[in-house]
Write a structure and sequence with these properties.
Length: 428
Amino acid sequence: MLEKDNLGKTYHDATKHSYLSVQIDPNYVDASTQPVAFKVYPKFYRRVQLNLNNPVHSFIWLTSAVTFEKVYQDVPDKLRVNPSAGALYPTEVYVQIRGIPGTVDGIYHLEVENNCLTLIYELIDDGLESYIIPGRSIKGCIFLISCVYYRSSWKYQDRSLRYCFLDSGHHLGAVAASAYLHSKDIQLIFDFDKLALNTDLGFENKEFVTAAVISGEEQERQIRRLRLKIPFVCGTDYFEANQLIENSYQVTAVQRSHPQLLEQPQFNFDKDKFHQTVWNRRSVRRFRKQLISQEDYLYILQQLEQPIPSENFEEIEIYSVVHRVEGMSPGLYKGTHLLKSGNFSEKTGYLCVNQAFARDCAVTFFFVSDYINYQTAMQFAGFLGQKIYLVSNYLNIDCSGIGAYYDDETQEFLETTKDVLYGIAIGK
Ligand SMILES: Cc1cc2nc3c(=O)[nH]c(=O)nc-3n(C[C@H](O)[C@H](O)[C@H](O)COP(=O)(O)O)c2cc1C
């Protein structure tokens, strides 16, 4: 594809951070004006309280559960299994349930704050399949991840669409972790008729679908599009439109990625310990400059090589800036291959907008890509980011996502022409 045709790249280029741009606009906001981070449908909709002894409920619940509550600057923060840039949580989850005894066939909104499913649409001969996998019907669950973008653009303005996509990828990673713990295979789908779905789900311009996840038995059957439009319900208490975000979402929703064969990952974690890890996952902002073992570093890299279960593909290259790994000389690596040696901890701290944790950690990862579909590539990066969080926390290594970095200078440091999509720091 010609560069000028890559509309994702146009957005990415327009939202680069530099030393100067961050000085001019440091994203300060009045915390008391933060829009609400939980969508609630009106009370007349029927609700099903999640019962954690029911394996389907437990599977759905663990994709999005609130795991920790704290108060920050007088604002209560409800932290969840999935991390989110700035803890703003633009993502929402909808689940279509079909053919599960004891549950009405329908589309449900997952009301994270109240641990319940809100039935927003009852199925007859229609359903989400017609938008996502035409000609098929799924006995089981179809998850949809969407973004209420103003929750993030309130603070991060134009750059927030990047965080919406990365957060969505992290949320997909949380769905995958819950599926693993409930012994379910899943398929992630990125190329489908998102625009029609946004209209029929009543999202207007304020919320948009980013990905779907299938978990269930596929049957050949013609399912119709939703026979009724779902009414609009706002995911925030107030809203300000951002035209760049809306346009960039739309143009990146229709480009198709490379095809690949669907392959399931094979993980070998101790499930009780992994469950604890999912539950206790957190971001850490302070590292004590301690070494991690080479064995742990290699184990994390190995898990990253496991396939992402999707027929859509975007290649993500991972650079590691190794600062403190036993038995490895500090330097810039691709996997175990040393590209340039040196102690770059001060440099990465600077590149990540002077965030000290990117300097004091053991390894700073950067994900780069020559994507076709920017929306999918960013979600792949977020998905891999979630994997790094969980695998490192599983090994008692701390982690944090890094959405803020000086784009061009980081690219220059990595000596790549590909766009830098995301950073992650791990360490102790
Ligand atoms: C896409 C993304 C980008 C992030 N970028 C940063 C960052 O640049 N600096 C930082 O301190 N934390 C960053 N974080 C971490 C979030 O602040 C953190 O996830 C959020 O506060 C919730 O806390 P928790 O992860 O402990 O649940 C990022 C997280 C995500 C998912």
